[in-house]
């Protein structure tokens, strides 16, 4: 007989294996137990047919990866602890010293910062292109091809653009890259696998911040990278393991629990956002509403030709003559809209942005920009909140 503490640790009982329930099991482990040395020696993390170590995946993470891949219309998925970590995973898997990463001028700010200040320091060149001008991208891609670097470039796409919400001609941009042998990666956080089908457009890699709509609760940080090409997936998976990009099982549980309702929530956000965007477009203090589904917004035609939905995010341009203090007072006067970054959660959010510090050329968008993330509150209540705050600007 062993001592009681040893018996507790090595207790032989195993529960019956016929358990089935709606939610998947949550497996939290660092160490994975192998049945024998032969199994230990034959482990193959990259095949994903078994388990090697908690950092390399558990049944819980494998289930979410398969579901996110299905949501995006892909075949393979890697999870990361944030959307930015997922972007870094892609960059480091595909780029080395002397290569070039091309970013849209209206890209997610931390992605631009990462490329300009981290990748650039490692000898990876960063170029910024105008996503709303395919000719600008074509010139840059042709210059890379003439320099013999066409196959050593990575083109990032974002639809719509961050904060300013311009929707580009994705099909056209992807075609330009494919014709020159350049790999394409799309930040599809806004589309969430629901607004349009990115792989059907020909994109190679789809990244998403699961922090937003897949989570839906404003309580999880997570990212994903989805591909269809096995060789491309293997490159990403190798660096994923080398970087140690682990995701906690409890966080995965939150996303797995929320995922079945993502379409319902997404379309609810969309409907409320369109109603409020249309109403705000009629208000005297609002110069322009930047919502891709709204006629007259930058890239609306491209949105209409690509998408069937539009998420719950939009920005407004307030009259440029307004003092900054008045704009801040408008934001402070909102009660249901909370001041905070991110989006996709149940609570509506608002953030004023300084376009001058974000865009090299802001001539096409004069005015004070305020971004709204629409939550799941009632339209009538959010509209009333906006109306009372707009009185500050009157």
CATH topology description of the largest domain: Aspartate Aminotransferase, domain 2
User: How many distinct helices?
Assistant: 13
Shape: globular
Strand order of the largest sheet: 1-7-6-5-4-2-3
State the CATH architecture of the largest domain: 3-Layer(aba) Sandwich
- Ends distance: 83 Å
Outline the low-pLDDT stretches.
Answer: none
Q: What's the assembly state of these chains?
A: single chain
How many structural domains can be distinguished in the coordinates? Answer: 2
Helix content: 25-40%
Q: SSE order in H/E notation?
A: HHHEHEHEHEHEEEHHHEHEHEEEH
Question: Hey, roughly how much beta strand do the residues contain?
Answer: 15-25%
Tell me, rounded to a whole number, the average pLDDT: 93
What's the level 1 CATH class of the largest domain? Alpha Beta
- Main sheet properties: 7 strands, mixed
The value of Rg in angstroms is 23 Å
CATH superfamily of the largest domain: Type I PLP-dependent aspartate aminotransferase-like (Major domain)
* Number of β-strand runs: 12
List the helices and strands and how they pair.
Elements: H1 4-9, H2 37-41, H3 59-72, E1 76-80, H4 83-94, E2 100-104, H5 109-119, E3 125-129, H6 134-146, E4 153-158, H7 170-178, E5 183-187, E6 205-209, E7 223-227, H8 230-243, H9 249-258, H10 262-280, E8 286-290, H11 300-306, E9 313-318, H12 324-333, E10 338-339, E11 349-353, E12 368-373, H13 379-390
Parallel strand pairs: 2-3, 2-4, 4-5, 5-6, 10-11
Antiparallel strand pairs: 1-7, 6-7, 8-9, 9-12, 11-12
Helix pairs in contact: 3-9, 4-5, 4-8, 6-7
């Amino acid at each position: 007989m062993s001592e009681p503490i040893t018996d507790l640790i090595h207790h032989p009982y195993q529960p019956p294996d016929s358990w089935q329930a709606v939610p998947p099991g949550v497996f939290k482990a660092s160490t994975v137990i192998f049945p024998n040395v032969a199994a230990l020696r034959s482990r193959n993390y990259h095949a994903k047919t078994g388990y090697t170590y908690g950092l390399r995946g558990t049944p819980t993470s494998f289930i979410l990866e398969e579901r996110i891949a299905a949501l995006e219309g892909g075949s393979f998925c890697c999870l990361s602890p944030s959307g930015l970590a997922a972007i870094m995973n892609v960059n480091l898997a595909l780029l080395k010293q002397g290569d070039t990463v091309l970013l849209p001028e209206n890209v997610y700010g931390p992605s631009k910062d990462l490329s300009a200040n981290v990748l650039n320091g490692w000898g990876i060149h960063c170029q910024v292109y105008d996503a709303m001008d395919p000719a600008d991208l074509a010139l840059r891609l042709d210059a890379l091809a003439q320099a013999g670097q066409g196959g050593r470039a990575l083109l990032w796409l974002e639809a719509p653009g961050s904060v300013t919400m311009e929707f580009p001609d994705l099909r056209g941009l992807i075609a330009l890259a494919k014709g020159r042998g350049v790999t394409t990666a799309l930040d599809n956080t806004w589309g969430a696998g629901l607004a349009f089908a990115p792989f059907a457009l020909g994109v190679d890699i789809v990244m998403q911040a699961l922090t937003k709509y897949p989570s839906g609760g404003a309580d999880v940080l997570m990212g994903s990278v989805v591909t269809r090409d096995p060789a491309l997936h293997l490159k990403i998976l190798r660096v994923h393991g080398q970087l140690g990009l682990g995701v906690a099982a409890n966080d995965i549980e939150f996303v797995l629990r929320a995922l079945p309702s993502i379409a319902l929530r997404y379309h609810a956000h969309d409907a409320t956002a369109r109603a409020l965007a249309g109403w705000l477009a009629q208000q005297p203090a609002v110069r322009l509403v930047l919502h891709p589904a709204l006629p007259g917004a930058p890239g609306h035609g491209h949105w209409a030709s690509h998408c069937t939905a539009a998420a719950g995010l939009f920005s407004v341009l307030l009259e440029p003559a307004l003092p900054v203090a008045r704009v801040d007072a408008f934001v402070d006067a909102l009660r249901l809209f909370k001041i905070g970054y991110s989006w996709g959660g149940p609570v509506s959010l608002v953030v004023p942005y300084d376009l001058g510090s974000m865009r090299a050329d802001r001539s096409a968008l004069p005015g004070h920009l305020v971004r709204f993330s629409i939550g799941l509150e009632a339209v009538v209540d959010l509209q009333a909140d906006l109306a009372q705050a707009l009185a500050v600007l009157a």
